[in-house]
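Hypothesis: this fold can be encoded by more than one sequence.
Test: take the structure tokens below, design a sequence, compare later.
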């Protein structure tokens, strides 16, 4: 090293770089090879040439030296004169300064290695050896130069302190003499000086370097928990601690005060860490579940097919528009308070307001004198009578809520002007009727954000508010605590004669706040200044040509929008007489406003298009109507394009009643921009306003194209007049930069005027985006220096200066790149027989997001007398109309009962609440029509399956391409100690009848729990002999003939089964027909008998009569049955000679079952396979003659038949048989029998578990009092051929926990047609485990483990322990290659008790020919496997088996023949059914039926059934599988 040679002078800059290089290596920011290369480049010019061998030796440090360097311990690199001189200089310079050196400490690292195995993170790339990047420098910013210098200085002093305190490597070579110690200390001091000099120079160069580069990462946040102001000490907390030294101690410094500090001696140091921070740190240190080596990456957005742009789409081609200028505003006028005071003094008796009650009679006459006096009284009480003089409750500028009903405008006007006179900001809101009002919670949030603590209301409204039993007003959800003040004069204090309110000049102060409901349901408060309020009134006066003492009829809501602007504000400025019509009267008498116009000779009327529409319906009853006095009919919702039809129809009907054509004046406005435009009354009464007929398809692309009236897909729009006086208007693009639109382009209208809102209260960000818009041209130049305000209206300005509005921004739905207006969809739906079907025209249209795009949902209230046929006919016509006119599909169309949708305060549909109820599934629809195929056009791309493990993969042991092969095996059957004396069950029964004749094998219980019958070994043998004798005598059967056994669950079935074996016949157990449903169940019985080629039927006398009854003959011809033998009266003589099979591979019995897809198949079971199966179950469950097992299964196929009929004879244990049908009358029979007989092992089906869970949910205490104790149960195995039902087993375990049932005792078994028992939880071995997997990964045949509660998580329960003698491998069902553990594949099984093959198959699809003799495409290609037809995966757990090896758990996902593969992704019907059942509590069962569709995909339909009493036994099919999906069947 250069700094070791004192003869070679080294510049200061090189020394600084060397010091930086040393720090990088010590901190691990650079590799050893990179360090050597950089060091040689720096000092190569200052060193003499050395031999190559010596240079190579120097470049190759020893392994021990490298370990010392990586561990952070001191080595020879720090023992140099340069370092000593630097430390000396630093100490001399900073001798008087007190450094904040951290004491030697030990802490637990935040990233300490845990004992649990965590796979390496392969997401980050490895660092290059010759990297030129300095990570330590990158993490600083320009403002951190001082902190960096302090950190480096502190790091150097920390090293000095560490060397001085304990340095085992340095002190190992020194002696214990004092002289040696003294020299060592002096050398360390010199070394510290040299190091400090290096640090200071390097810090200076680092500051210079950072001043000339851009910071790449933000600086770390300051440590607010530190108590020192020293920059070096503050930065020291962020330095990474040293690694563990060779002496066993770790020298570290604090890490943000987030760790438990300890001294070098292990003494804890006081830390300033709160309990919450410490808990967070402990949580972060907690080891996470190790993910699988290969996991599924959700690239769903990339899989969506991108819509290719159509070159023929309409595009804007016009020139850039020019902002439209309104006429100049007239002369100044006094503020509203001054105007009110003037009219009160000049004409105190002039009528100001006339309120009409629900009967159409005036009940309140308010003059300007009364309005002024009452307003002054309200202002005085607000200013002086609330609170105290020192602490008034309401101060100037505070917000006050105005809560008045829609039928009391007088009290509202009094309170509103009282607030203006008191310099208080009124916030008008709706009256809360209940605590669950639609949107009421959002109103409360607005009041809370505005700081409202006082609410003004009327006496009648105060009495009608919901109250608690104590008489206090209820606290509404989300509302702040309010003080309610009644504004009637008798509730207020008298105003002193010498007190007058101060009239404020119009300025930027807030006059009132108007609330606005957003598209997402949120409520915003729009603040309107006093200057804007006055300017707006002046503009309305000029545009509408108001004159004093005119009469105006108002039907609108006077608390907001047009009703507030005209009937409350502008009316006072011009001393107008307002006649207010409440909405309650309009519902009863739609002609009320026309009658009041005639009665008061009104000049102006403010209505909506709906009022005009309903007046058309009811006008036939009125004759004396004269509308000649009207000079202006103001249509408030003129911004709705569909209002033009109501205007035209109203004009055509009432033209004969004196209505002039030029007085209909639509207007457009919004809470943010107030009145945007208004049509002036025409001077010529016969003048017809211009119309625009626009193509709706072009409008959906934002382009204006004129069309003809004869087409359907057109929109006729009327103008809303010209721009307001004193305003400038332009249209900007809806998305992105507010750029001016072209002349033939639709955009959002923006206005620049004083008469607009000022802000959204408390929301500066949204205020800037709405009220401070700066439009620019296409060249990027600013249109105007003053900001514009967004109106929220979609429209354009024609060349004539007229403003056209095509809709609202909040009503737009972006579907497939096109914009559709909700009002247009509503109008189209209403045009389909509205009066005949839709109740009062109540239709809501909104959009929801599905597959990263919006989808249209239509919700309508149907009339009470509508039938289901009418409903679906109307829905189909609506779908056709929307598709034909708008060229867009409807995702869902919902019909609900009348008056069930949430209402707005004025009776309309509350859109946000309706959408929320739809998303929550709480609409309770009467009829639903889902049409996703018509609108979902951006389906995911068909998944490109990645290449799996193939024959070309390199195989090493159980690993292929770095993955462990998913294979497992049970206990070795050849090593088990078991007798090989008998190979046939018939021989076993004969042996037991001779050796233990009185041993009871079977006990059958009845519905009361009593013993119905029992049979010993000798009795079973003798009865079986009699059955064999009857078969030989009556039927003359030959060896190998098939015999069908039609018995209910009981002893007769077992006796007949062994009687067939004694006679050399092949038994086939068949479920008998149900007596109450013979017509449905008998054809299945007949089909099994025919397909199995049975030559004889053994049954009881009762069933024999049933087969020959008239009811059965109607379903199946009785003459087609084979000979039916009744076994109730058996012959007394026994068979002369019992049959003994010549070969163990001969057929023992046939197992017939119906799959969930409707395929009837019978599998062959040989004698050897039957004995091996019984032997495997015996070893797994440790079944011996002293054991008792309770069985509650259907004994007709699968594992139920094996446990019911075969295992007891082979193992000798006693089986307590409980027929599942008996649980219909006694749901507690099974649990009571298990408890009374002290059974440790029991087998049941999911039907039994479900019946016990549902029927005994409320009877656990009664069962406990009866002495039911389940604590002795060791294993409770649920037998099924499906995915384990995790939720049901969990509910069952939790419910009967109080009875002593342990959750680990409940497990599941797995079997199929090719192997009756693959997995079965035994008495020894680990408890069953449950994992949570990602459902999205399963669709791609990948297995990704997630935490419980994660989105898209699916719980999967282990399907039991693999039986002895069984081998399992997971194979690709297409390529037949072995798969890794992280893949989902088909379960292949190999064992001695596999089925021999199919006897016959009856169904739509036949299984593969190699179903029972498949071979892997590579790997072990010699072994034969049987394909189970079920998808699953294996996972090696951390648990150990009884033999000490790690346990391999099998998880079954679903049947391969049931799974649907759509666009390359695999879906399982059980997941869809579970989702449907969870949607509503009334859905008890559900079945999904796949319907083949074109294009290689498939469509599914779901049928659901309501909750109701079900059979206790699992009658769907043995094993508890789902109903026949192909037939939509069930019970």
């Amino acid at each position: 090293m250069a700094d070791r040679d004192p003869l070679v002078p080294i510049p200061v800059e090189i020394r600084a770089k060397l010091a930086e290089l040393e720090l990088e290596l010590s901190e691990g920011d650079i590799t050893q090879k990179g360090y050597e290369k950089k060091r040689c480049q720096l000092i190569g010019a200052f060193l003499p040439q050395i031999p190559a061998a010596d240079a190579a030796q120097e470049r190759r440090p020893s392994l021990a030296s490298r370990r010392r360097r990586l561990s952070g311990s001191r080595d020879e690199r720090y023992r140099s004169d340069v370092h000593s001189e630097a430390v000396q200089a630093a100490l001399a310079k900073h001798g008087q300064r007190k450094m904040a050196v951290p004491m030697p400490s030990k802490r637990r690292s935040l990233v300490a290695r845990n004992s649990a195995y965590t796979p390496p993170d392969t997401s980050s790339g490895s660092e290059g050896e010759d990297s030129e990047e300095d990570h330590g420098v990158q993490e600083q910013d320009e403002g951190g130069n001082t902190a960096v210098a302090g950190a480096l200085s502190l790091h150097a002093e920390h090293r000095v302190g560490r060397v001085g305190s304990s340095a085992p490597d340095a002190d190992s070579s020194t002696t214990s003499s004092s002289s040696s110690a003294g020299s060592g200390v002096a050398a360390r001091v010199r070394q510290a000086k040299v190091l400090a000099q290096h640090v200071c120079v390097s810090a200076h160069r680092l500051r210079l370097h950072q001043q000339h580069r851009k910071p790449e990462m933000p600086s770390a946040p300051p440590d607010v928990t530190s108590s020192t102001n020293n920059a070096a000490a503050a930065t020291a907390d962020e330095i990474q601690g040293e690694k563990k030294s060779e002496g066993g101690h770790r020298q570290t410094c604090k890490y943000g005060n987030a760790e438990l500090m300890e001294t070098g001696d292990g003494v804890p140091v006081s830390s300033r860490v709160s309990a919450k921070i410490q808990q967070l740190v402990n949580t972060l240190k907690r080891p996470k579940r190790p993910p699988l080596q290969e996991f599924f990456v959700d690239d769903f957005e990339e899989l969506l097919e991108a819509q290719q742009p159509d070159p023929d789409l309409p595009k804007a081609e016009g020139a850039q528009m020019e902002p439209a200028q309104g006429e100049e505003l007239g002369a100044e006028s006094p503020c509203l308070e001054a105007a009110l005071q003037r009219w009160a003094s000049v004409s105190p008796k002039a009528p100001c307001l006339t309120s009409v009650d629900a009967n159409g009679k005036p009940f309140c006459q308010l003059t300007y004198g009364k309005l002024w006096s009452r307003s002054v009284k309200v202002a005085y009480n607000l200013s002086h009578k609330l609170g105290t003089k020192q602490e008034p409750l309401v101060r100037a500028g505070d917000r006050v809520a105005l809560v008045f009903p829609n039928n009391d405008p007088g009290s509202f006007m009094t309170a509103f002007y009282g607030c203006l006179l008191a310099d208080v900001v009124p916030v008008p809101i709706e009256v809360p009727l209940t605590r669950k009002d639609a949107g009421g919670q959002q109103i409360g949030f607005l009041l809370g954000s505005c700081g409202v603590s006082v609410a003004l209301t009327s006496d009648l409204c105060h009495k009608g508010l919901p109250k608690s039993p104590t008489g206090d007003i209820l606290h509404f959800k989300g509302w702040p605590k309010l003080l309610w003040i009644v504004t009637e004069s008798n509730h207020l204090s008298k105003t002193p004669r010498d007190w007058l309110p101060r009239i404020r000049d119009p300025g930027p102060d807030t006059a009132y706040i108007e609330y606005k409901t957003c598209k997402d349901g949120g409520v915003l408060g729009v603040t309107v200044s006093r200057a804007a309020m006055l300017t707006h009134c002046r503009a309305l006066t000029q545009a509408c040509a108001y004159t004093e003492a005119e009469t105006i009829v108002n039907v609108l809501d006077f608390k907001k929008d047009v009703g507030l602007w005209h009937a409350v504000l502008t009316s006072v400025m011009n001393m107008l007489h307002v006649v207010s019509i409440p909405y309650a009267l309009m519902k009863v008498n739609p002609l009320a406003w026309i009658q009041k116009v005639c009665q008061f000779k009104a000049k102006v009327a403010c209505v909506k298009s709906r009022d005009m529409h309903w007046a058309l319906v009811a006008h036939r009853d009125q004759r004396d109507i004269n509308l000649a006095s009207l000079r202006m009919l103001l249509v408030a919702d003129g911004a709705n394009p569909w209002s033009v039809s109501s205007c035209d129809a109203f004009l055509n009907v009432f033209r004969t009643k004196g209505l002039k054509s030029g007085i209909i004046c639509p207007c457009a406005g919004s809470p943010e921009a107030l009145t945007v435009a208004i049509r002036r009354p025409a001077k010529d009464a016969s003048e017809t306003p211009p119309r625009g007929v626009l193509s709706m398809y072009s409008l959906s692309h934002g382009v204006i194209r004129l069309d003809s009236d004869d087409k359907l897909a057109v929109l006729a729009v009327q103008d809303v007049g010209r721009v307001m006086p004193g305003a400038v208007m332009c249209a900007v693009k809806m998305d992105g930069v507010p750029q001016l639109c072209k002349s033939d382009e639709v955009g959002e209208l923006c206005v620049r005027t004083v008469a607009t809102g000022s802000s959204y209260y408390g929301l500066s960000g949204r205020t800037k985006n709405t009220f401070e818009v700066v439009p620019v041209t296409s060249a990027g130049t600013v249109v105007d220096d003053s900001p514009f305000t967004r109106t929220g209206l979609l429209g354009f300005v024609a060349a004539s200066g007229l403003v056209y509005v095509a809709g609202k921004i909040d009503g737009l739905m972006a579907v497939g790149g096109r914009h559709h207006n909700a009002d247009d969809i509503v109008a189209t739906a209403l045009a389909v027989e509205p009066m005949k079907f839709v109740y009062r025209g109540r239709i809501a249209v909104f959009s929801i997001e599905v597959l990263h795009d919006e989808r249209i949902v239509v919700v309508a209230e149907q009339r009470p007398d509508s039938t289901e046929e009418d409903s679906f006919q109307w829905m189909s016509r609506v779908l056709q109309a929307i598709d034909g006119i708008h060229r867009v599909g409807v995702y869902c169309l919902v019909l609900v009962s009348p008056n069930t949708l949430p209402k707005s305060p004025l009776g309309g549909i509350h859109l946000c609440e309706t959408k929320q109820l739809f998303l929550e599934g709480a609409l309770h629809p009467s009829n639903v029509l889902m049409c996703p195929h018509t609108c979902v056009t951006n389906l995911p791309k068909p998944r490109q399956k990645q290449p799996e493990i193939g024959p070309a993969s390199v195989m090493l042991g159980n690993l292929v391409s770095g993955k462990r092969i998913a294979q497992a095996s049970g206990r070795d059957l050849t090593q088990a100690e078991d007798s090989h004396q008998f190979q046939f069950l018939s021989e076993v029964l004969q042996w037991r009848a001779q050796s233990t004749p009185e041993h009871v094998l079977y006990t059958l219980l009845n519905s009361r729990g009593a013993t119905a019958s029992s049979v010993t070994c000798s009795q079973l043998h003798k009865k079986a002999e009699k059955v064999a004798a009857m078969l030989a005598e009556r039927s003359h059967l030959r060896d190998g003939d098939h015999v069908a056994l039609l018995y209910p669950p009981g002893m007769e079935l077992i006796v007949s089964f062994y009687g067939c074996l004694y006679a050399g016949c092949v038994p086939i157990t068949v479920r008998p027909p149900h007596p109450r449903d013979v017509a449905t169940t008998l054809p299945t019985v007949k089909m099994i008998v025919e397909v199995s080629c049975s030559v004889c039927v053994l049954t009881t006398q009762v069933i024999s009569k049933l087969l020959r009854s008239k009811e059965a003959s109607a379903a199946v011809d009785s003459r087609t049955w084979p000979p039916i033998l009744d076994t109730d009266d058996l012959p007394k003589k026994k068979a002369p000679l019992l049959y003994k099979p010549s070969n163990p591979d001969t057929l023992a019995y046939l197992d017939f079952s119906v799959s969930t897809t409707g395929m009837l198949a019978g599998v062959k079971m040989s004698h050897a396979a039957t004995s091996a199966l019984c032997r495997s179950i015996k070893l797994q469950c440790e079944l011996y003659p002293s054991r008792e097992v309770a069985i509650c299964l259907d004994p007709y196929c699968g594992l139920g038949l094996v446990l019911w009929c075969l295992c007891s004879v082979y193992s000798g244990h006693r089986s307590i048989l409980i027929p599942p049908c008996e649980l219909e009358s006694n749901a507690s029979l099974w649990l009571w029998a298990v408890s009374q007989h002290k059974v440790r092992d029991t087998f049941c089906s999911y039907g039994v578990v479900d019946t016990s869970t549902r029927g005994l949910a409320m009877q656990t205490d009664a069962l406990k009092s009866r002495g039911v104790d389940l604590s002795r149960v060791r294993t409770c195995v649920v037998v099924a051929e499906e995915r384990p039902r995790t939720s049901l087993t969990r509910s069952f375990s939790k419910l009967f926990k109080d009875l002593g049932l342990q959750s680990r005792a409940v497990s599941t078994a797995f079997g199929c047609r090719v192997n009756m028992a693959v997995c079965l939880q035994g008495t020894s071995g680990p408890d069953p485990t449950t994992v949570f997997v990602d459902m999205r990964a399963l669709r791609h045949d990948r297995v990704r483990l997630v935490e419980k509660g994660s989105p898209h998580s699916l719980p999967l329960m282990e399907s039991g322990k693999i039986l002895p003698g069984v081998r399992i491998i997971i194979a690709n069902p297409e390529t037949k290659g072995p798969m890794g553990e992280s893949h989902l594949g088909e379960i292949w099984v190999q064992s001695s008790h596999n089925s021999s093959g199919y006897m016959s198959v009856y169904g739509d699809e036949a299984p593969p020919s190699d179903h029972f003799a498949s071979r892997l495409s590579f790997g072990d290609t010699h072994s034969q496997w049987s394909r189970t037809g079920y998808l699953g995966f294996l996972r090696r757990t951390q648990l150990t088996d009884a033999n000490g090896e790690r346990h391999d758990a099998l998880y079954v996902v679903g049947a391969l023949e049931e799974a649907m593969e759509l666009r390359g992704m695999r879906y399982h019907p059980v997941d869809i059914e579970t989702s449907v059942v969870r949607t509503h509590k009334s859905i008890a069962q559900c079945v999904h039926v796949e319907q083949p569709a074109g294009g290689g995909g498939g469509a599914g339909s779901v049928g659901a059934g309501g909750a109701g009493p079900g059979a206790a036994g699992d009658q769907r099919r043995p094993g508890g599988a789902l109903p026949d999906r192909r037939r939509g069947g069930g019970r």
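Residues 182 and 188 are 10 Å apart (CA to CA). The two ends are 89 Å apart (CA to CA).
Hypothesis status: open.
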